[in-house]
Amino acid sequence: MPLSPHLPDLTALSLLVDVARFGSIGAAARAQGMTQQAASERLRGVEAQVGFTVLHRSARGSTLTASGTVLVEWASRLLDVANEVDGAIASLRTDRRRELQVAASMTVAEHLVPRWLVQLPERQTREGVEPTAVSLQAANSRHVIAAVTDGSADLGFVEGTDVPDELGSRALSSDGLLLVVAAGMPLSSQRTALTPLQVADLSLTSREVGSGTREVLERALATHGLTMAAPAVELTTSTAVRASVRAGGAPAFLSSLVVENDVAAGHLVVVPTTGLDLQRTFRAVWAGSDTPPSGPVRELLGLASQ
After folding, report:
1. Is the pTM of this model over 0.70?
2. Helix (H) / strand (E) containing 121
3. What is the residue extent of each domain of the chain?
4. Residue 66 burial by Cβ neighbours in a 10 Å radius (0-12, 13-18, 19+)
5. Residue 270: what pLDDT?
6. pLDDT of residue 1
7. 192 vs 271: CA distance, rounded Å
8. What is the CATH number assigned to the segment(s) 174-280?
């Protein structure tokens, strides 16, 4: 859904957060590289846009109103996410000067890698090391394995797939797949857990062949001698699958990381299943020995392992 006209832009929110951090409009203006007059006008524009007063202004300075304090808390969280996305966007741009080539499965690339790419240069700067430029390739797990094997990626992150013996690997974390459907769809009122046979008969919104998400489901069904029914539709990203299901499309198995917010908000409903092992492990993979290469690969891997 489109955003309302009452949401200020990120620059304006950053200015307001700096007022809270430094205690005055003047100090916030200096931090943002603008004049105090321009900052004051920008903040009045914020108040007009949101429809309430965010600052008490007096001869002794400016302090946040109660509503302004709440807005700063929300804005701080939004800016943290924006910084992660900004770092991830930078990593996707083609640049011959980049030093570390990373490939990640779609779920990992969408939900975990951005935070690591923000933390890596921060840690390197604290340690007096020149920050490493990173290039990120997002693909399904099978393509990530291929990229690490042929040397086009220095480090890969995969999900729910076997790792070839010639690659080193490390388990990072795990999650589970959930069967979800849009609220109001027939399966959303299902109370009895679906059996493996019932799951196998479902025509799903599915990831493509080679996806770690799809492999987990296929293996879980195979232990019962079952195979997936032909998908209603195949899509190449978890985000696209989630959007399709939310719009009333066929149900789908998705990572708990992908759907937790939509489930909490009531947009998606988890359909219970039984008898299927839908847990999976996220792994880092690299070429060579069991010990990851020193330098940026090991540093990024350290962050991912936390």
Report:
1. no
2. helix 113-126
3. 10-86, 89-172+282-305, 174-280
4. exposed
5. 95
6. 62
7. 9
8. 3.40.190.290
